[in-house]
Amino acid sequence: MEVIRTRALRGPNLWSHHTAVEAIVQCSPEEQSIAQISGFEVRLRARFPGIGAFLPTGHDNDAVPMARVLEVTALSLQAQAGCPVTFSRTTPTVEEGIYQTVVEYTEEAVGKLAVELAQNLINAAMADTPFDLPGALAELRDLDEDVRLGPSTGAIVAAAVARDIPYRRLTEGSMVMFGWGSRQRRIQAAEMDSTSAIGETIAQDKELTKKLLHAAGVPVPIGRSVEDAEDAWKAALEIGLPVVVKPKDGNQGKGVTVNVMTKEHLTKAFHTAKEFRDDIMVERYLPGHDFRLLVIGNKLVAAARRDPPHVVGDGVHSVRELVDIVNADPRRGTGHSTSLTKIRFDDIALARLALQDLDADSIPVKGQRVILRNNANLSTGGSATDVTDDVHPEVAARAVEAAQMIGLDLCGVDVVCDDVLTPIEAQGGGVVEVNAAPGLRMHLAPSYGKGRAVGEAIVNTMFAPGDNGRIPVVAVTGTNGKTTTVRLTAHLLMASGLRTGMTNTDGVYVQGRQIDSGDCSGPRSARNVLLHPDVDAAVFETARGGILREGLAFDRCQVAVVTNIGSGDHLGLNYITTLDDLAVLKRVIVQNVAESGYAVLNATDPIVAGMANNCRGKVIFFGADRGHPVIATHLAQGCRTVYVEEGQIVAAEGSEQHRIALSQVPITRNGAIGFQVENVMAAVAAAWGVGISWDSIRLGLKTFANDSDNAPGRFNVFDYKGATVIADYGHNPDAITALVQAVETMPGKRRGVVISGAGDRRDQDIIEQTEILGRAFDDVTLYEDACQRGRVSGEVMALLRKGLDGAPRTSHVEEIYGEFKAIDFALARLQPGDLCLILVDQVEEALAHIAQRIKEA
Amino acid sequence: MIKKKDIEFLRVTHLRGPNIWTYRPVIEAWLDIGALEEFPSNKIPGLYERLTAWLPNLVIHRCGVGEHGGFLERLRDGTYAGHILEHVVLELQNLAGMKTGFGKTRQTAEGSGIYKMAFRTRQEQVGRAALTAGRDLLMAAINDTPFDVAATVAELTDMVDSLCLGPSTANIVDAATERRIPHIRLTDGNLVQLGHGARQRRIWTAETEQTSAIAEGIASDKDLTKSLLKSCGIPVPEGELVKSAEEAWEAAQDIGLPVVVKPYDGNHGRGVSLNLMTQQDVEAAYALAARKGGSKSVIVERFIVGNEHRLLVVGKRLVAAAGGESLWVTGDGKSSVTALCDAQINNDPRRGTTEDSPLNIIIPGDHAEVILELQRQGMTPDSIPQDGQKVLIQLNGNVAFDVTDQVHPDVAAIATLAARVVGLDIAGIDVVAQDISRPLEEQGGAIIEVNASPGLLAHIKPAHGHPRNVGAAIVDHLFAAEESGRMPIVGISGKHGATMASRLIAWLLQISGKKVGLTNADGLFVNGRPLPKDGFTPWESGERLLLNKSVEAGVFESDARMILTEGLAYDKCTVGVVTDVSGHEELAEFYINSEDQLYSVLRSQVDVILPSGCAVLNAADPLVVEMAELCDGDVIFYGVNEQLQAIEAHRQEGKRVVFQRADRIVLAHGDEEVATLPLSPLVPPEAVLAAIAAGWALGMKPELIAAGLRNFEAKPKKAHH
After folding, report:
1. CA dihedral over B435, B436, B440, B445, signed as positive or negative
2. B191 near B202, Cβ under 8 Å?
3. Are B176 and B194 in contact (CB under 8 A)?
4. What is the rounded distance in angstroms from the CA atom of residue A175 to the CA atom of residue A774?
5. B299-346, pLDDT tens digit by residue?
6. CB–CB of A88/A76 below 8 Å?
7. Which residue from B389, B349, B344, B334 is spatially nearest to B364, judged by alpha carbons?
8. How far from B664 is each of A604, B620, B681, B709, CA to CA, in Å?
9. Chain B, 624-683: which have a CB under 8 Å from a chain A CB?
10. H-helix or E-strand containing B86?
11. What is the reported pLDDT for A635?
12. Whole-prediction pTM value?
């Protein structure tokens, strides 16, 4: 078995809505059914007993190819390592022994590693060599913990997803973007984009924090900075014993000593603190427990009591042994993923023991509480108990005032007091710290008590009820008419005042300004538009390549437009060999229409019309013929339909009707250009699906001029010395048929056409193009493409020639090498009143060339 | 007792708010000039000459005379030591770079030799130091002993530099003052609050409280910034992150020479090498960047040919731009670098060898940094560059020219977009372009960095061109045109019933839906919750309310003692209430010996009323009635007796009054009786009337006021200690 290629499908794709690894797998004849490999399955299952079944019940005699084994193994490995994955699939391709295997992942790196490890496991089973399954699972688990979002960020993302808010990681760390375009928001762990940098700086400065809290009447332990140990003692006496000694601007409780009563202890504490920072603070020691109050927006959302790590003596074991026993608790992990962490038994713990006249080998008497650290952080073995329901309103009010005074919209307020049941002031407690970017783990999954919905609270602060951060997204695909439909739809959205981003095969545009060039019909360009802060709506040309390569850039769209499939284009590439394959690929956008959204489908193309069954949202059918059975049925059902009647485009839904005269839509030339009428119907339906007003749609249709600046290579009409010249990028039989129909409505004495054939089409498709042209044109100028895409020179020309054999109308055929020369040749033959269709290949250059010739004329 | 010729400080007080002298903070010094009472300046030979020699700028002090040289005229004709000291101190402050003009000196009693002298200062410690230094200087001048003026000024200048606001922050604060937005400095540094209470916005140099912490994080991650900008179609120098010298050279070849090499997470241009062409240079630059950046991760990117510009974006606007001019020559295949400099750089008419020339002549061989720059390009001053080859002569990262008016609109649009993409409300965008007046795309220009908390100096004080008022842009960004940052403030002074009135007004504000801060003789309260006083002075208690971000309205009782010793806590108020002018007997220690002198203390309360505000004055106290004319805003008189002269006259003028009639309280606006409320059992009745008038002045409905009076709790709560 050989894995020829793997790809990460990072969005909804051909196979499913899930992110997945897609592998092209080659199996030898023997591997096409593993039953032929003696003992293989037994050896495999011995090495990985947790692997699932290869076949559904009752299919025991079906062949299981090795690709399927790879699939099931890679999925099971991930599942056993704790990743929530369920989808996998293997399909044979048209090529013998080549399979496409798809395995869902939650983390790309983990998915890829799982495929790799699955190969190793299969190889081990084949060769009957050992395989370290626990090691492999541990490797996957570690990688997963490393790359996936941390618990705080993960909880916020989960809450956003539950509210249907799309998200995207901006870094490998914890920076995440929610929503799209102008409605996007960002977080980084427990910081929001609205969290103030000044607020964070103030919170870092404990003295300033205390000063401000004090001003606002929030109780704080008074204290001051000290110069040296002697000054520290002086300060302690001013403040009153006991005191706390700690580094200014410290974090995670490093170097803090509490409950200092004697000068000796104070001196020691001063030096401990000094190891971490130069600036040392002495302040009043507040007796009581450590509480963490989480404030989000202007509300107290959660509260936890934090207890320092400790062990309880049993009169038998030493402190060291007691710690080991406690750490053996399976709930205690090593990282940030569990509700408890192992107690660290290090120098800080030993120093804390020494204060209790103990060392590592002391055996505390039964029931003796031995504290191993002063601070109660979970990361050093402390525990958290949820006390949210106990918080007295006055306590909550002080926490909120503290947050407000510091200027933080999301923070953890550390309070020391005996309990939270009574006001802090009444107990002589106080706020000791305000923390920006607080850890959420102790509230999400406290060691004891209920978890709290803090992720939800954060998301609700950023997004008002009902706001899911989405901008309207229109995805457009099809064989022909995509680009014009995309441009026109974007134009209609802009006419309604939405700042619109657009991607297509020419580039990326935001509000009409081109920000990227080249073929931008893939997911990367679409993602860029969704990131842009000035975009209120987006229209994406969604080409097959991107869907195949990476999947969609979005999880859901408001409108999906499929213009047509016709007889297809680019068939034969990437295992898309039949029209059905192509339909399955193109309908991916239809499958990912939001429930509140619309699929805009061409009713007259049976394959496209059939996609209606794959849509979760509603369907708008369009088609010129009101009498077409699909249109008529849809209309009768009172559903949204767009058709043409008496020179008007009609948009109907039940008894409601909106009519736009084709005379008011310049690109259709009073309705004469049939394929433009189709594009207009599709774009109108898309704009309707987004909810644009009819006034805006009318205005947009009127102002959309299809000159070459607006849609280069899409039916650009010029006048050359009294002859009509039309330039178009049409390059498949359907497009050419449509062009011929359009051109036939236009006057022209003698009719000429200039054409090449792209090498990456099937022979039959190339031949068919000239067959169509031969029925409608007098002169045909053939030219050879600049890029032959894998064919030898002259090969395409010969195919084009073949299509002209026995052409009913063509009387003159010329073969020319080079696009510009061919254009010049055809132009030179034109007489006033003639017509010439130029099928351009290098769109920009050719159009520039034509423009130059017209200028000279 | 034989008096010495000396100036003794009996008491020095920093009055931190509006006071009997002026609206602004001053230092008030009580002086005993002893025997100098017998020696006005004209009686001390040589004093005039010595003082004017040491402090020649005294000539511009106008003093009471009101014209240039006014003070010197007084000095020549004979004035007393206290007054001279006032001018000496002001002059010392000016010399130290802290511009102030206000001073006043008054003798407490004729012939006593005891003076109260006050002078304006912007920073207490500097003011106190200037006062001491001023006395020493003056005594040296009187006694004809030497005095080192220069050293004293240098010391004071150091203090000003370290203790006063930095220039960028000061520029913003000045712009706020211009818009009459108050400010409070929160630290010894540059953290300043503009506005009061819940209406405040904080700034910290060029950061605002709206500046996002996440955005700052993004801006400090150059790679992330660049990838976000690039995604949004903003031109950036394409680059790669490398982790070794070999990778650096590979990347340089991929990207195309010349390249820039810089630390991944560095700042201030440390460890950055530019315009690198050779493997040797790139590898050496990698080592430097890795060392300075403290990390193996180093960025290699395309070197953008052009000049550096700093574009300052505030909100959605470009507000200023500054540029530096790097010097380049283009080879012709024949001339040496030195000759090219003469032909292409030194032909600039601004360049010359005299002191008047704004720019220097460049002779490559004479400038070490030019030689170094050429070395990095593998050249010497005598090298002959190829035809068309661009050679860098001098890089100028120092953006000293204001180019705001030249920035092409597309460039401005891209700069503001860059700030939005990163998420910063204030950002300094570094742009390299050959010509900032043309779009970037057509010249291969690029945005090379987005900076949070950008320096403003290059725009406030450019070396060349127009200074830009960026402070005003920042203040306008924080406060909409109609916002003043002020919350409703009611100030109350007087002896009888002032405390009661303050509580009642606070209560009315509270039931009107505002979170109210109250400071009065009973203590400090927020919405009725007592806060511990913790040894705060009355002024400090007042400031606590102004600092409090949750407080939406403030009520401040300020007695005469507080005004005398500290000043008012607020610069301006919406409503000022004066109940009576009485009790001067208790203030003899401040040399307040009559009702008239007390009047001049309590009038401060009326002096600070905003033009849109209102004075609430007791019609029964003739001295209080007199204060009406001091008020910039409206006046409401109140009194138990409807027939009081002030009430009747005020009504006749069509103005507002509040009085009692039988068992009703009447609110009258001229002839019209707007509302009548039932009599309240609360005492004293004058306090109730004052509170009603204040409530009315604040725009409350009479029904609300009536309801408030009914459910008012007469006893204040006690604070926990």
Report:
1. positive
2. yes
3. yes
4. 59
5. 898 888 888 899 999 999 999 999 987 788 888 989 999 999 889 888
6. no
7. B344
8. 85, 19, 12, 13
9. none
10. helix B81-95
11. 96
12. 0.86
Phi, psi of A86 (to 5 degrees): -140, -20
**Secondary structure (H, E, C), B605-632:** HHHCEEEEEEEEEECCCHHHHHHHHHCC
Phi, psi of B233 (to 5 degrees): 80, 20
Contacts B209 to A, Cβ<8 Å: 196, 198-199, 407
Between positions 442 and 481 of B, the ones with CB within 8 A of A are 452
Before B258, cis peptide (omega within 30)? yes
| Rounded distance between C-alpha atoms, residue A102 and residue A8, angstroms | 10
CA atoms of B417 and A515, how far apart (whole Å)? 12
In sequence order, the β-bridge partners of residue A414 are A292, A433
Instruction: Measure CA of the first residue to CA of the last residue in chain A; give whole Å.
Output: 64
With a cut of 70, list the residues of chain B below it in pLDDT: 1-3, 266-270, 355-358, 376-378, 396-399, 716-721
Q: What b-and-e string marks burial along A45-76, b requiring 16 or more CB atoms within 10 Å of the CB?
A: eebbeebeebeeeeeeeeebbbbbbbbbbbbb
In total, chain B counts a number of residues equal to 721
Among B540, B459, B553, B545, smallest CA distance to B506 is for: B553
Inter-chain CB proximity A198 and B548 less than 8 Å: no
Distance from CA of B582 to the nearest CA of A (A): 32
DSSP B2: P
- The reply to whether residue A195 touches residue B213, judged by beta carbons under 8 angstroms, is yes
At A629-674, the pLDDT tens digits run 999 999 999 999 999 999 999 999 999 999 999 999 988 888 888 8
pLDDT of A253 strictly over 80: no
> Helix axis angle, A694-703 relative to A482-495, nearest 10°?
120
Phi then psi for residue B715, to 5 deg, are: -100, 130
Asked if residues B261 and B286 have their Cβ atoms less than 8 Å apart, the reply is yes
User: Quick one: residue B652, left, alpha or beta (phi over 0 = left, psi -120 to 50 = alpha)?
Assistant: alpha
Distance from CA of B89 to the nearest CA of A (A): 32
With tokens 């890679």, the residue in question is A74
CB-nearest partner of B214 from A191, A407, A533: A191
Which residue's entry shows tokens 């004495």? A749
Q: What is the Cα–Cα distance from A324 to B669, expressed in whole angstroms?
A: 83
Asked whether A9 and A115 are in contact (CB, 8 A), the reply is no
Determine contact: B224 vs chain A, CB below 8 A.
yes
Contact yes or no for B222/B264 (Cβ under 8 A): yes
- List CB contacts (< 8 A) between B216 and chain A: 197
Q: Are A502 and A538 in contact (CB under 8 A)?
A: yes
Two tokens, residue A476: 């457009």
The ipTM, to two decimals, is: 0.88
Mutation target among B194, B196, B212 for the A interface, most CBs of A within 10 A: B212
Burial B402-435 (b: 16+ CB within 10 A, else e): bbbebbbeebbebbbbbbbbbbbbbbbbbbbbee
Measure A247 CA to nearest chain B CA, in Å. Answer: 20
Q: Kindly report the backbone phi and psi dihedral angles of residue B322, in degrees, each rounded to the nearest multiple of 5, phi listed first.
A: -130, 150
The residue count for chain A: 857
Are A532 and A510 within 8 A, CB to CB? yes
Is B421 an 8 Å CB contact of chain A? yes
d(CA A294, CA B619): 53
DSSP string, B219-267: HH-HHHHHHHHHHTT-----EEEESSHHHHHHHHHHH-SSEEEEETT--
Locate B220 and state its tokens: 């400090």
A191 contact residues in B (CB cutoff 8 A): 213-214
Tokens of A730: 């049409």
